[in-house]
UniProtKB/TrEMBL annotation:
This protein's UniProt keywords: Folate biosynthesis, Lyase
NCBIfam families named in the record: folB, folB_dom
Location of the Dihydroneopterin aldolase/epimerase domain: 9-119
Metal-binding keyword on record: no
Originating organism: Psychrobacter glacincola
EC number(s) recorded for this UniProt protein: 4.1.2.25
Pathway involvement of the protein, from the record: Cofactor biosynthesis; tetrahydrofolate biosynthesis; 2-amino-4-hydroxy-6-hydroxymethyl-7,8-dihydropteridine diphosphate from 7,8-dihydroneopterin triphosphate: step 3/4
Gene assigned in the entry: folB
Family statement: Belongs to the DHNA family.
Listed name of the protein: 7,8-dihydroneopterin aldolase
Known catalytic reactions: 7,8-dihydroneopterin = 6-hydroxymethyl-7,8-dihydropterin + glycolaldehyde
């Protein structure tokens, strides 16, 4: 089966103040984080209906990610990014997430440092550990 579209809902440079860092002094303060999120999702229904109920609501995504960052209080950006990606995949209907989390004030000589990860929604399983083949001879 051929895919004829690829849609993304994105958030660029979401600013969050959170406890983040491995050093003792970092555990006593909040620091700014800049977060980019790309959620690969089918926007067809919202494109036709023009109703936010049919859309993956980026306002909800921003509110959730902000709350999660502030609750997790991670040491490493790797841990924070992994947790957020897992939670987004669990809550929102999307096939793939690319997420970057940056610390713009961590290294004086750099504009920002951080991590970028890509995660995929779990493919439907046929019990064999392989991806289910949902195609039929008619698809050929
Ligand atoms: N790969 C990483 N390296 C470092 C991290 C991190 O989260 N991932 N964190 C720190 C410190 O918290 C740093 O930001 C303090 O300036 C160091 N290296």
């Amino acid at each position: 089966m051929f895919h004829t579209q690829s849609d993304v809902v994105f958030v660029k440079a979401l600013k969050v103040e959170a406890v983040i860092g491995v050093y003792e002094w970092e555990r006593a303060i909040t620091q700014p984080l800049l977060i980019d999120i790309a959620l690969e999702t089918d926007i067809s229904r919202a494109a036709v209906s023009d109703e936010v109920k049919d859309a993956l609501n980026y306002k909800e995504v921003c509110d959730d990610v902000t709350a999660w960052c502030q609750a997790i209080k991670a040491q490493l950006l790797e841990h924070l990014a992994g947790q957020i990606a897992d939670k987004l995949l669990e809550k929102y209907s999307c096939d793939k997430i690319t997420l970057s989390v940056a610390k713009p004030t961590a290294i004086e000589q750099a504009d920002a440092v951080g991590v970028q990860i890509t995660r995929y929604a779990q493919a439907a399983s046929n019990g064999s550990g392989n991806q289910a083949d949902t195609s039929s001879a008619d698809d050929a």
